[in-house]
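Help! Submission page says 'invalid entity' but I think these are all valid:
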Amino acid sequence: MRTLPVFRRSTTEALKPEAAKDINYSSQWRLMYIKFKRHKLARISLYVLGFLYFVALFAQFIAPYGLQSYDSKYVNAPPMTVRFIDGEGKFHLQPFVYELKSARDPETMRKIFVADTEKKYSLQFFVKGEEYKFLGLIPTTRHLFGVEEPGRLFMLGTDAMGRDMFSRIVLGSQISLSIPLVGVGISFVLGLIIGGISGYFGGWLDSIIQRIIEIIRSFPTLPLWMALSAAIPPRIPIVTMYLYIVIIFAFIGWTDLARVVRGKFISLKNEDYVIAAKIAGVGNTKIIVKHLLPGFISYLVVATTLAIPNMILGETAMSFLGLGIRSPATSWGVLLQEAQKIENVALYPWKLIPLGFVILTVLAYNFLGDGLRDAADPYKK
Amino acid sequence: MLQYSIKRILMAIPVVMFISFIVFYIIQLPPGDYVSSYSAQMTAAGEVMTQADMDQMRANLGLDRPVYEQYAIWIKKIVFYGDFGYSFNYNKPVMDVVKQYMGLTLVVSLVTMAFQYIVAIPIGIYTAVKQYSAGDYFFSGISFLGMATPNFLLAIILMYLSYTWFGDPLLGLFSSEYVNAPWSMAKMMDLLKHLVIPVIVIGLASTADLIRVMRGQMLDELNKPNVITARSKGLSETKILFKYPTRAALNPIVSTFGWSLSSIFTGSTITAIVLNLPIQGPVMYKALLGQDMYLAGSWLLFMSLLTVLGTLISDILLAWLDPKIRTEFRGN
């Protein structure tokens, strides 16, 4: 058995009667899992997102430099090439970068950077750098990789203040990736509770809640975001600013989820099994948690996932306009502020790199949501 | 039908009232008021305003009264005189500022709207008929990308491309020589040239969305019995396509018409700021930042009214197209 090729083993397994039985007796979650696994794009997206969040979690360790560390010698430096082969055609097992030397473009007289082939710095793991707290707890100076002082490593170039773009993108991902998650989390809880009350109890409570939802939904999202963000006082601590923005996003986002929850509650609460439970004297809380929630929680997860991309784009847009996250805090939208000027994009195109990460994340969430929706739909093959 | 429409309109009135109140509450939320931001500007320019000056100015502008009184005065003027207040920044009535930018805003919005329907409907039909073809994958890929790219950054990229290819980033809506020129054929052409980027940028996300809706609807309709019957009768494929599935699939698209216009109106804001278009968006953005509260408030109110109106039109259109909804409503 051990020596059989893999494909043969799997075919024989699929033919076994137990396997077919397994499908028939699987729980709803197990079926969803099987269907989700078959959705290739969604699975890849899940890995991509997993990777991005992993990097965000260990951002301080992975980024070679701190958020504010700058070097005025290297303003608007282009991305460095990490090389294995040096100028004489010799191969090095350990990758290295050349030092950047500033020069003048003979035609335009603009300041440009050229690689100084005389000085090379090899890339090293666990180099000493700025001090930070690993996971916010353990103070250390080791970073995942980097080059030794006085060498500099700018994998994705630098910004107008000579700050390393790669480090700032990695550190900025902490805010860019967590805001939509926290915002959607708050919307989820609000939507579940308010939509649940509205759908389960009905009557005048339902009418009032529905009118409130209707009013909030009548506001155009973008202008309302702008108006509310403009109301955030300047010069407040980063944590407070973060909270304000998350609350603004959640305040607008919960209504969609509340409507989904309400609809599901209304359609399920008159099912025979729920009425039977009621007659048997089961309390409201238990009916909701045990009999109603499992019936539609999968739809909610899907709706929540699909709400995330909009929040990411919203946060990016607000921060880009200077109405969202503001420096010294950094998100991808803040990094893109420098791309506001067309000259900057024309001369230093690497300033658009954060855009790539925004698109990647939004696409991944969209595909993940699609995959989850297909998996949660029992009628879809 | 008429009864449904009237009921629907009556239902919108309390919603509008609440909205106006919330709008006013939001625009006076930012710390400080127009006077404090004005005095900060003055200080920066070298002139110092005393406390007495500031109090005097507040009294003149009615900013020293309690919020609810300010709100009551504002609403009273809107309802009875159509007066939306005074823009401090522009030093003229809000209505004049709005009127000044309204024409071009409408032009940009309507052209964008036309663009998205003209592009999305044929592509939607094509991708549904040729499902899983190379073209289908191509357009699906594009529409996914269109939804994932923040549109203001797309604006920058297009500006950059137009700058490198044609040597002109096509900022604004007119070239400098035409801004104050009277209308002429040349000015029209100039406007059309400058409209390309804004229309693509503003319309892309909703076009992508429309393509997906149209494709989904068509796929549902293509296998219906009426199509099979028509085919068995020997009608040509083109005739079948346009006579049955396309007509049925257009219903949900047409019904989102009203909603779509208001979403273009509000969605153009950020793009307009980036592209420096002389339309509502940038004007209101400055009003929000500079605490020009009546201008900002009127704008927010106007946008919300448009959304309510868009939903109203969509609901009525949908009821008109779909008798099921009509009867359901009457049944309640």
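Support: the input was valid. A stray whitespace character was the problem, and the output above is from the cleaned input. The two ends of chain A are 33 Å apart (CA to CA).
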